[in-house]
Amino acid sequence: MDFRVLDLVATVVECCKERCPPGPGHPPAETIRVLATLRRFLREGTPWRSLTASAGEASGSTLRRRLEVRARGGVLARVHALLVAMLRGDPTLILDSCSVRAKRAGELTGPNPTDRGKKGTKYHVAVTGDGVPVACAATAANVNDTVVFERLFLSAFAVMARIATVFADKGYDAEHHRELCRSFGAELHIHKRRQPSGSGLGKRRWPVERSNAWVLENKRLALRYDRLGFIVQSLLQTACVLLVARKLAQEL
Q1: Would you say the pTM of this structure is higher than 0.90?
Q2: In this structure, are residues 15 and 36 in contact, taking their beta carbons and an 8 Å threshold?
Q3: What is the CB-side half-sphere exposure of residue 185 using CA atoms within 13 A?
Q4: Most distant CA pair in the chain: distance in Å?
Q5: Is the dihedral of CA 216, 220, 223, 224 positive or negative?
Q6: Could you report how far apart the first and last alpha carbons of the chain are, in Å?
Q7: Each residue's pLDDT tens digit, 218-240
């Protein structure tokens, strides 16, 4: 299954990346080798210096260079969108976020109000009703969820066939969010602020909490060491891409 997932993602990456004329010097590492390295780096939290080139994997410097190029060209976002479009998705959209500590600070970090003000990063994820992540974003831990709602919703709407219902907790409660959903024909269910708990939305929001748990199984995301924002966003996007690809590989 792991080989099928990597092969599927590598095929889509080859379709999405920009074609560059071959130049002098050593030929570039194969996409499948770079993806295998990225998966191990993401899951095991392997230090950059420990990533050495081998028959099946690329070096740490090659991985870092590829991540920068793909972040600049938006390749991972396009790969994510294509894989989601290939799925028979549920028309329900569910949003949530989770925060992690940033050991070395850096970009996209801020004081985490749920962790005694320690420097942290927040991962925002939007999933379908069956738990497929369709949009994601990394921000500082002190960024309010309402700021990211529109970005996640529009990103999800661009790749889903339709959005019938949106579920979110009271962190996303804002009237302009309801207006946005109504303008796209979606029904929004958000627990309102300053209302007693027990809204009943918890039984509908469990798919996004499960997906957040799957994302945090990746050691490189569960505890942030990288200082550069594009690396953190790329790692989060890669984790979501692998989840979508695994779901798609099961259906093929």
Answers
A1: yes
A2: no
A3: 6
A4: 66
A5: negative
A6: 11
A7: 999 999 999 999 999 999 999 99
The CATH number that domain 89-222 falls under is 3.30.420
Give me the residue label for tokens 């799957």: 214
Q: 229: which strand partners?
A: none
Structure tokens that stand for 50 in this block? 């420990």
Q: How many CB atoms lie within 10 A of CB 146?
A: 14
Q: Which residue has the tokens 């570039």?
A: 28
Per residue in 100-155, pLDDT tens?
999 888 999 999 998 888 999 999 999 999 899 999 999 999 999 999 999 999 99
User: What is the spatial distance between Cα 171 and Cα 34, in angstroms, rounded to a whole number?
Assistant: 38
CA dihedral 227, 77, 8, 63 (to 10 degrees): -30
Q: Contact 243/214 with Cβ under 8 angstroms?
A: yes
